[in-house]
Amino acid sequence: MVAINRGFRTTARQLGLTLIEVLTVVAILSILAMVSTPLYQGYQLRVKVGTGAATIAPVQRLATEYFLLNGSWPADNNEAGANAPDSYSINYLTSVAVTESPVPGSIVLTYDASQLRVLGSNNTLIYYPDVAANNGAITWKCDKGTIDDRYRPTNCLM
Q1: What are residue 153's phi and psi, to 5 degrees?
Q2: Element (H or E) spanning 5, and its range?
Q3: Confidence band (pLDDT; 50, 70, 90) for 2?
Q4: pTM of this prediction?
Q5: FRET pair for 20, CA 20 to 30 Å: which of 7, 14, 54, 112?
Q6: Can you say whether the dihedral through the CA atoms of 55, 57, 60, 62 is positive or negative?
Q7: 96: closest CA among 142, 60, 138, 72?
Q8: Predicted local distance difference test score (pLDDT) of residue 97
């Protein structure tokens, strides 16, 4: 049998993508990159701030012990029995200081603005004790400080 060619030819146009199709894919990928990049950068900053916040557990414990023994909150790291504020400096965190403001027994975390440029001078997160009136239970809240809400750890947004 002989194949009869009826004028159908395979052309280059039928084998690949058109310029319009390629440009459409590039445009879609560009839009996705524009949307996802800021979200990812915000996520990275929240992780860095949260990592610093995780280092305060020993200071919270010392401040709580001081309160339970003395009936008042410590005025500074020395009174709480904690190390000097700058000794807690790790990664992006420059200091962890026990202070009397805004609430007695507050723990102020100061982040390195030169490494976390997005924060600028808004680089403090404050944990403060809250003693329940009915049973004396102590919880630590962190809705104060200068760090924007979008960069705070999730436990600070409640």
Answers
A1: -60, 155
A2: none
A3: low
A4: 0.73
A5: 7
A6: negative
A7: 60
A8: 93
